[in-house]
Amino acid sequence: MATQQPLSVQQNLTIRLLRVLRYNKARIERALTLMPEKHKPLFHVLPFLVHVNHEALPGYIAPLSSGESVPFGINNYSFRPDIEKALLRCFPAENHLFSDIKQIWPRQRAIESLVLMGSVGTIAQTDDSDFDFWVCIEGHRFSETELSLLQQKLTAIEKWAEHTFGIEVHFFLSEIDKVKENDFGIAEGESAGSAQALFLKAEFYNTNIVVAGKAPFWWLTPEKTSEKQYQAIYNSLEKGGSPDLDWFMDLGHLEKLDASELFGAAIWQLGKAMDSPFKSVLKMAKLEVYLANITHGQPLCNLLKKHVHRGVEAPGRVTDIDPYALMFDELVTHYKANGQPEDIEILQQCLYLKCACPLSQPPFEGEKANFKRRILASYARQWGWSRKQIHHLDNQQDWTFSERVQLSRRVHSFLLKCYRRISKELSDHQQAMDEKDMTVLGRRLSTYYAKKEDKIEFLRRAFDESLYCEKITIAMRQLKNGDEVWSAYAGDLLSKSGIIDEAQKISQAPSAIALMVWLVSSKIIDTRSKVYLDYNYGEVSELDLNDLLKHLCKHFPPVRVSSLPRNDLLAPERITACFSIVNFPTLRQKATVEDVAVIYKTSWGETFLKFGNDVLDTLWYDLQEVSPKPSCYVMVPRGNQQSRILGEFLESNELNFNVLY
């Protein structure tokens, strides 16, 4: 019996490539399965718009008078019937362009690859998942002007997608040589910059789908490969060979992660948690797992690659591999081994809520459960969840306000706990994060999490719109010592029974102004909300509260900390707006200035509330001797003495106030 000859390096590479291609195809099919019908054309149209440049289509950039023109055209991109069908749905009037595609098909190929990364094509994909593309180019081939034109083209396509489909699309222009050296620029907006260069690359390798063009060569190397072995395998490829060198781009090897980056990555995730807490819980937990395995373990992307390469050991199973589920299983294994059951519980709830697949709603008759439902149902069974528990999680709209806030607190408590554990473990390591990036991210976190005297604290939320109240009831009670407690309750509790339901309590504060400022800054109420006042208190009226609400929403709207400008955070903190509220709680018959409350906000996104007639005096320098000068506003509640009080206030203050009525 003849012995089986061992496979050559090239044969092994070809087998791996076939399995990677099969996995990539399965991810694309999954992405399209989970997309709402109206968004499906976008998946095919976006690469096409990057590939061509025609004045009748979004993303067109005209040549400059200097002769320079925008680079476009994607390597190995071909026109297929499904692309034509999607284009006709989006641009029916341009049928003539697509029936004879040669007239607009580019001769050049400026873009090496268009690669999607993130939750698309995984169990974490939802109807409003962003499309995050890496547009991979050989940067040295183009001038600064050409790169700028390409960025303009990509931005124009992003805007068209947002306007037409309501979907956020981000194109990250990625120069292959820079990515290979882990250079991702500064930490601003969606870019992680120096905060977590290797982690960003690991995340890319873990979740990438090649939509068009060349595949990352990383996919072909075994999961445990040294830098030297990686280069040797890459050098063994030839143009025209099998596999062909021209099918790949080299974004660099990733053998292990760097502990010096972990601290920056943890700060980055805490920052991201301000907008997407559920996603950040899983990612922060992943950093903690990476830290535990930093000396002997390997990045999750290499584990994923091992599963994809071994696809033949379980025929057909390669298509069942899910990067998100794989990550989650690793996290649970770690926290079980470290005896942290309360952490596992919050991870389970965050995964389930992030995936937005309500298991309490059965599939439609005749509808086959998709891969996402199968995986999540299997998890819920493993976790021992009852139908009642699942129904409760699926119906957040029925939760009391305190139930929602409770989950939010647990989420942020977990994040801070993880961050502290990571910081403690890394205290001896040199940090790789750029100093300016560290300053920007550190100040964002301080704005969001730090407690300061007179500062209006941020509501650490896990939900967004679900905390918003169309109707809200404000009530005041006086303590035995004479102090007031002002409380806010979700809904109109007065017209129902007149009895205050403590289960609907949102928050309380020592003054009506403090309560209203917090409610607006926490995005619980806005100008569309109706404020009801429990009439057991004399001076402050429902009308006063609604007037105050109007002015706060206009001049002190909620701050999105993650969007604070980088330059503001690198500069010294300064006051940007100041609002004085005069005689809000005092008797309306009083004709003199009795009570002054001052609200001011800063360039670092912090809002402060101080009481006293001398507050403006102590802030004189920040309000008067700076450039640009902050806007100053004043409000006196309606009443017979309003103009007299206003006159006295303006006369006693040298600042230039805008009067609000």
TrEMBL record:
Pfam name, any one: Adenylate_cycl
Domain Adenylate cyclase class-I N-terminal, residue spans: 19-219
One GO-annotated biological process of the protein: cAMP biosynthetic process
Protein name: Adenylate cyclase
Gene Ontology terms, MF aspect: adenylate cyclase activity
